[in-house]
């Protein structure tokens, strides 16, 4: 089968690889690229290109293992694609989930975890000490014609939810996990730092939870427009206005109840801390590539809380899919481009690098249909 294989910095190849077997506890999905785990098998349909994929292309390997991964046993080259939907192609002999059947459209939670470390035993498998992600850390990936994944990480899509939206469940689950960690109510004043794909997903999830007074700080004009369309009540341009001062004006001098830093740059974390109210909550959503200066007094003088979140858990996937079913989450506008697998690098990854302000989510169509 064909798969998008990551070999290293600026080296992604579409090539032929063996189709993965379907292990006894796995589901095999049919997509249009490669994968090889040991559970049910799925054929991928649509795969989102993530900021993590861009970082791997520009400066990796980072998440992609340059030596044998302790859980998957794989190392580069590995198949990419961790934001994906697909169709169940094969079901392992020991799979107990009776609701799974061949031909069912689904989304996949790509978490890889050991189940044995202190984090996993504490119910925080998303923070597994040796964990990773299908589509980054080995074990196959969505950018292939088939992938085998653990049965308990396969989530059927409700009737009427297209496979394109199924590929958005992963980034929406990142946002849902972040928003669920924040003490928000419908009356909360919330500041989102950054209007990129995750920041916009956070806006959508806040709206789904009933929050209306959402402020987004973003410098790019196109992303400001997206944020407004997705439900932000106020747009703050940090190039023009001081974020803290604007938040104080909007909130009557109180500050934001919650701030979520999705931008991941030194100025954004400082602004998030300075704009939060006394005893408010700052949530770090971003993944940082290097250390930055951080002054604890930013939160100390407000007696505010600084909290970090990482990826998602099963409950987040379930909540996102349920909110897609009810219509509380309406993420279709996140999809700004769809491309075939052969265009992955030129019109997918490179487009997101050179034209990132005008793109939210680029989906790779791997060719599977119902």
TrEMBL record:
Cofactor: Zn(2+)
GO cellular component assignments: cytoplasm
Catalytic activity: L-arabinitol + NAD(+) = L-xylulose + NADH + H(+)
Protein name: L-arabinitol 4-dehydrogenase
Metabolic or biological pathway, per its Swiss-Prot or TrEMBL entry: Carbohydrate degradation; L-arabinose degradation via L-arabinitol; D-xylulose 5-phosphate from L-arabinose (fungal route): step 2/5
Gene3D superfamilies from the UniProt entry: Medium-chain alcohol dehydrogenases, catalytic domain (3.90.180.10), NAD(P)-binding Rossmann-like Domain (3.40.50.720)
Top-level class of the enzyme under EC nomenclature: oxidoreductase
Similarity annotation: Belongs to the zinc-containing alcohol dehydrogenase family.
SMART domains recorded: PKS_ER
GO MF annotations in UniProt: (R,R)-butanediol dehydrogenase activity; L-arabinitol 4-dehydrogenase activity; zinc ion binding
Tagged with keyword Nucleotidyltransferase: no
Organism: Colletotrichum salicis
């Amino acid at each position: 089968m064909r798969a998008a294989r990551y070999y290293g910095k600026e080296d992604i190849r579409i090539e032929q690889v063996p189709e993965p077997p379907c292990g006894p506890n796995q589901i095999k999905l049919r997509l249009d690229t490669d994968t090889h785990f040991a559970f049910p098998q799925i054929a991928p349909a649509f795969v989102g290109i993530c900021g993590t994929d861009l970082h791997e292309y520009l400066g990796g390997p980072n998440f992609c293992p340059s030596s044998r991964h302790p859980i998957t046993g794989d190392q580069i080259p590995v198949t990419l694609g961790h934001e994906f939907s697909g169709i169940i192609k094969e079901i392992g002999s020991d799979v107990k989930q009776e609701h799974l059947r061949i031909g069912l459209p689904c989304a996949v939670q790509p978490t890889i975890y050991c189940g044995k470390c202190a984090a996993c035993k504490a119910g925080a498998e998303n923070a597994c000490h040796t964990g990773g992600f299908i589509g980054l850390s080995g074990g196959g990936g969505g950018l292939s014609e088939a992938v085998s994944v653990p049965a308990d990480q396969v989530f059927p899509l409700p009737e009427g939810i297209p496979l394109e939206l199924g590929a958005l469940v992963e980034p929406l689950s990142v946002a849902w996990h972040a928003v669920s960690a924040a003490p928000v109510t419908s009356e909360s004043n919330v500041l989102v730092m950054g209007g990129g794909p995750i920041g916009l997903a956070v806006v959508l999830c806040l709206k789904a939870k009933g929050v209306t007074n959402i402020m987004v700080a973003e410098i790019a004009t196109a992303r400001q427009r997206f944020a407004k369309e997705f439900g932000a009540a106020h747009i703050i341009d940090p190039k023009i206005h001081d974020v803290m001062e604007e938040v104080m004006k909007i909130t009557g001098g109180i500050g934001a109840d919650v701030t979520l830093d999705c931008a991941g740059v030194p100025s954004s974390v400082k602004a998030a801390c300075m704009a939060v109210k006394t005893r408010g909550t700052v949530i770090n959503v971003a993944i940082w590539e290097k250390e930055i200066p951080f002054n604890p007094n930013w939160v100390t003088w407000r007696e505010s809380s600084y909290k970090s979140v990482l990826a998602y858990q099963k409950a987040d996937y379930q909540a996102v899919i349920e909110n897609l079913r009810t219509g509380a989450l309406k993420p279709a506008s996140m999809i700004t481009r769809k491309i075939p697998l052969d265009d992955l690098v030129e019109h997918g990854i490179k487009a997101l690098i050179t034209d990132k302000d005008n793109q939210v989510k680029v989906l790779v169509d791997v060719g599977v249909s119902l």
